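Changelog-adjacent note: as of this version, every example in the card shows the full chain rather than a window. The one below runs 238 residues end to end.
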Amino acid sequence: MQGYSVSPEGLPTPAGAPVIVGALAASGPVPMAAVSPDNRHVYVTNYAAGSVTRYELHDDSTLSPPRETVPTGGGPVSPTVSPDGEFLFTSCEHVGGVAVLRIDPSTGVLTPVPGSPFATGGLTPHGIALSPDGRRLYTPNALTNTVTGFDVATDGSLRPLPGSPYQGGALGALPGQVFVSSDGRELYAVDLAGTSPEPLVALRGYSIGPDGALTPDPAPPVSTGQIFSAASLLVPAR
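Full-length structure tokens:
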């Protein structure tokens, strides 16, 4: 893992030497990172080991050696920190759940929330999205073509939203990532295998009700024309 400093013009420059995040057997094929809102800590998933490791982020953008490692559940991906910096969430593909870990405000150390990981009711949950206020969490279940929604309690525990999990695309669409609009009224799912005979990535939409429940948009999914992509999204408030 490599830290970078970014100039006022947006030019990234490597900061220090790369930090080894662990052997392939421990970190797995897809280590992913999340940064705490105060920019003091970096959390990296260890896919095969079912854990998250903390690193300290220095003022010069370099990283400390690995600190403690905390178990999550098998196959953690898409680590996401709550807007208030109190919790780290990560989907756990191998156990069909979402792990929740409390972040110590002074040390950054993670502690699993009782009941974690919380079952999604689907197979292979992946890219997490939080509502702008951090009170709701959504994750797609790729192999069951659904999207699960949760209420996030003040202690970090997760409770399924009404009607969750919500139906996604046709069999084989493989929803892999979801995004919530900045006004919290829409959710967009990225179908990594699309909905046509060709394996094209597609975007499908849902409206978010006052209780957080999802209603599929009547418009059909929009193909991106790409076979596979990583996606990001920013939707201005309306």
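Structural remarks: The chain has one helix and 21 strands.
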